[in-house]
Amino acid sequence: MLEKLQIEIDSCLTKCCFSSIMKPKLVSVLGALLVAVVMNSCAPQGGVPNIPSSNFSPSETVTGGLRSGDQAVNRNNIDAILNNPERPGLATGWGEERKSELTYVSFTRASSKPAGTDVIFYNNPEGIDAMTSSKSKVGPIQTAAGSMVEWGIKGGSGYLPSYKEYGYGRRLVAGKKGSTYSIVVKNRCKSALEIVASVDGLDTEDGKTASFSKRGYIIDPGESVEIKGFRTSYNKVAAFEFSGVSNSYANLKYGDTRNVGVIGIAVFIRKGVNPWTWGSDEISRRKGASAFAEAP
Asked: Looking at residue 55, what DSSP letter applies?
């Protein structure tokens, strides 16, 4: 393994067009990374438990799986650092682990397609100004999927400043490098909903490319879920933390930064259930509502 890694490092040094002054620094950095790889390979394997997928049926789970990788120093990290120069603005990095218990419940989707989707863009204040020609400050909570849910982005001391762009109607939130955030979603229906969430184009449950086929969080009627980070095990997540683009999880894990700066949700309804079934009293009251009711 060491010989193979040394060959890869030597090849990387050969391809890099640095001056003779910069080479000693690069050798020093790569040497440190090599030591980290050796120490990691000799350490006991921890982190995500190896749980057979056959134990759970996809239609009966809150989430379809665990994150497949970790942040150990590897060749992908080296390539990401060398090949992706710093882009301005914010992305999402790998924060400290936090407790987040996971419970499995039965939920069968009415359709493979979501009932609705929504996105919120994020950046630092300077980046938001550059992204928008004209904007207005709005409340931090917005509705989605035909008002079945409401959601927003929460920081350490409350919801983040939120804006709406004139013309395009995009929603944006302003963050600060080094601070953490979470995604808060509330179910406004009378039946349970499933929420699949993504950050920087990556699914929050397994850290891989986001897709409607992934499983998500089940939210009971009137209840809320706070998604605090990328899941690392059944009871822990790595906090969402605003970072520079080159230090983002998307870059360090995959070397791909094309989707940084966007948070998304997809909403699924339960098969055989009308989420807006409020009961006969509510229906009759709505039917009897008057547009020009006289004062009592």
From this structure: G
Encoded tokens for 24: 């000693």
Whole-angstrom distance, CA of residue 259 vs CA of residue 274 = 34
Cα→Cα distances 233→35, 54, 215, Å: 27, 17, 15
Q: Is the pLDDT of residue 54 over 70?
A: no
pLDDT at 29 over 50: no
* Residue 54 belongs to some domain of the structure: no
Judged against a pLDDT cut of 90, whether residue 44 lies above it is answered with no
Distance, C-alpha 146 to centroid of its chain: 22
* pTM score: 0.69
Contact 65, 204 (CB under 8 A): no
Both tokens of 294, joined, read 């006289």
Residues 185 and 251 in one domain: yes
Question: Is residue 130 within 8 Å of 172, Cβ to Cβ?
Answer: no
264 burial (CB, 10 Å; 0-12 / 13-18 / 19+) is buried
Q: What is the pLDDT of residues 153-192, one digit of tens each?
A: 999 889 999 999 988 789 999 999 999 999 999 999 999 9
> How many domains, in total, are found in the chain?
2
Residues 214 and 246 both lie in one domain: yes
Higher-pLDDT residue of 28 and 142 is 142
Domain carrying residue 27: 1-43
Residue 283 confidence (pLDDT): 63
Check whether residue 151 and residue 253 sit in a common domain: yes
| Number of neighbours of residue 110 by Cβ within 10 angstroms | 15
Contact 249, 202 (CB under 8 A): yes
